[in-house]
């Protein structure tokens, strides 16, 4: 599941950032080789990789936050059952 989410987020990166990210992080090319392959300065490779990682972290963090909200959403009947179960264990006869 995590791999699927990560691949989807990589696919959503802007083209310039995705190209650098794939070559550096996935294909493990050096900064120099990536710069040659993309015909851009090495400094640009470094800055685009930094920006791509930041975009991925931000996107994944938002995805995790949304998932956690759903995972721990205690409301209504479900919440009442959980509270009753906990109280029963804590206070016999409840």
Question: Can you describe this structure?
Answer:
By secondary structure, this protein is mainly alpha-helical. It is built from five helices and no strands. Helix 2 packs across helix 4 (42-71) and helix 3 (31-38) crosses helix 4 (42-71). The relative contact order is 0.10.
Average predicted confidence as pLDDT: 87
How many strands in all? 0
Uncertain stretches of 5 or more adjacent residues: none
Structural class: mainly alpha
What are the secondary-structure elements, in order, as H or E? Answer: HHHHH
Helix content: over 70%
Biggest sheet record = none
Q: Helix count? A: 5
Rg: 23 Å
| Coarse morphology | rod-shaped
Distance between the termini: 41 Å
Strand content: under 5%
Give descriptors for this structure.
about 90 residues, mainly alpha, about 80% helix, rod-shaped
Summarize the structure in short:
By secondary structure, this protein is mainly α.
Topology of this structure?
Layout: H1 2-12, H2 15-26, H3 31-38, H4 42-71, H5 76-90
Helix pairs in contact: 2-4, 3-4
């Amino acid at each position: 599941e995590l791999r699927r989410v990560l691949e989807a987020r990589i696919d959503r990166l802007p083209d310039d950032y995705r190209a650098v990210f794939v070559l550096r992080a996935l294909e493990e090319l050096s900064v120099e080789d990536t710069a040659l392959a993309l015909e851009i300065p090495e400094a640009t490779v470094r800055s685009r990789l930094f920006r791509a990682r930041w975009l991925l972290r931000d996107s994944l963090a938002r995805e995790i936050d949304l998932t956690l909200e759903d995972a721990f959403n205690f409301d209504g009947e479900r919440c009442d059952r959980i509270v009753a179960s906990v109280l029963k264990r804590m206070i016999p006869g409840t």
